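Issue 218. Parser rejects a valid record. Input:
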Amino acid sequence: MAAEPWAVAEARFPTATAGRYLGQLCAHFGHRIPAVREGDRGSLEFPDGLCTLEADAEALRLRLAAADATALARLQEVVGSHLLRFAFREAAAALEWQPGAA
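Output the parser choked on:
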């Protein structure tokens, strides 16, 4: 039997300080789950999915992959709410998640 496809979502958070937020997310979640930062890239290994992060001069890009739609929605809320809390000085009200390719 073939494995079920992963549910995937992507978001782009425009900011000039993407590297700082990438570092904050990795450091915060790293106390509870495996989190790795390598330069302008990072990953967060949740029990039910993976978040990859990429920072550049204009934005932080986030990609979530989860086993199913329920887990994906939970990860969108968890990762998104933490990013917005860290970026409270930014004018963003919410992240706009888009379906991504598995």
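Fixed in the parser; the record now loads. The CA atoms of residues 24 and 86 lie 7 Å apart.
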